[in-house]
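Check my protein:
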Amino acid sequence: MTELEEAGRYDSAVMLLPPRLRARARELDRAGRAQAEELRLRAGMPLGVVLPRGERSLGGGAVTVRDIADLVEIATGASVHSAGATLKNGYISCPGGHRVGLGGSVYLSGGETAGFRAYSSAAVRIAREKRGIAEKLLPGLYRGGTFRSTLIAAPPGAGKTTLLREIVRKISSPGEPGGGLRVSLCDERGEIAAMEGGVPGLSVGAMTDVLDGCPKARAVMMVLRSLNPQVVAIDEITAPEDAGALTLAANCGAAVIATAHAGSVEELRRRPLYAGILRERIFENLVFIRRSGGDRSFELMRGGEIPC
């Protein structure tokens, strides 16, 4: 995408802000808007923006609790009740693939989080497409001409979802080297494909079928039964049932792609959920995203290089 198009993604996320903060956010120059990753709202502090080299203040008056409540109202289309299922998990999926994460005082029902009594902070994550970022990586994900199951690991905010989306786009596009595969994309939070009226708002390839808004483990079972995928893709393995569904998909003959929050093999092995995945050898490829300032690189481990 051009710098102008990248800046346009920022501008679309800015529309989630209440009007008085939009003007402040638009004062960022075009180069900054093209690179921005998040907008940060914290009650009592100025509006902030997260750039590749760190977070900076956009100045102006302090964000108020009312500003954050207005943001939630805009992000939910003035229907907070309809967003209850995701709000209780602390986020709102928005048109265009943007996501609002929330902090504040929660209330419980039956021992589980049911919603927020008051908001104190918000992070508006800006959805971006990065065409071409997987070009050098992709050949290594195939063996014998066949795409192999791949786990993408990195700390939060490193670009796991962006890389996942680009790999899905490439392998499901006829005419691309190794492309033309049937991919079922289980997009629980709506961030990968950004579906709008049944049509992906972000490019995920010509032969990708999307199931969004459905819990990942359930979605994997549904696509295996109904869509005959060659590849199943999900974002963020977070629960044992997610791992179990991916194991089932692999045993049914489908390759799988997923992401995990971890910066190293050691970190993966320290977490029981991911350690179990390594022992099961579900994945034949392990990709770590390395970030230095504004630059990203990919480290690929294959087959026997991946410790169990």
